[in-house]
Write a structure and sequence with these properties.
It is built from 6 helices and 6 strands; from the N terminus they run βααβαβαβαββα. The chain has one domain (8-189): Phosphoglycerate mutase-like (Rossmann fold). The N and C termini lie far apart (33 Å). Strands 3-2-4-1-5-6 form a 6-stranded mixed beta sheet, sandwiched between helices. It has helices spanning 17-20, 34-47, 61-70, 111-128, 138-149, 182-189; strands at residues 8-12, 55-57, 77-78, 133-136, 163-166, 176-179. It is 35% helix and 12% strand.
Length: 190
Amino acid sequence: MELINKPFVFLRHGETAMNRQRLIGGRTDTPLNETGRQEARAASELLSSITWSVIGVSPLKRAHETAQLAAPGQLLTLLDGLKERDWGELEGIPWEQIIPYTDTPPGGESWSDFTERVQTDLNSLLQQHEMPLIVAHSGIYRVIRSLATGTPEGERIGNAQPMLILPPDATDPNWRFQPFTSATKEHYFD
């Protein structure tokens, strides 16, 4: 499985009560807490002045609300394929007790099914649009990392911290993940 070789910006949702308590949220449809709303508004300083070709968003409350606050007034495309992984019986457990990502949680979604649905919706957006904004979950970011690098392992992406994801090109044969900053915004959008 592969990603279409096009750049995009990824934004994980802002903080929720479950994030603050370091619990697996998965498909539990929790809203942002006040910190999460502030984080989304802060991301808006970089993201709201861009007219995005498309904003692909998980329909779960925390991602949808983040997208509304980070890119106010812009059309959002809700995609079920961008929902967080269904962790089954493991939803609500502390992060420290989580099983390896490629294992199937009891009563939950397998890694291969999760990866396939994320890849399908993400590639559909990449095929149709230039430089989309994707607003979703840390699990979606892990799938992107796995498709790009071969492993979902690595540091957890921060809440509401936009990342520029660049495909391989003539200067670098690897996918690159870098913070989306004022400088990168100016380079790609101004």
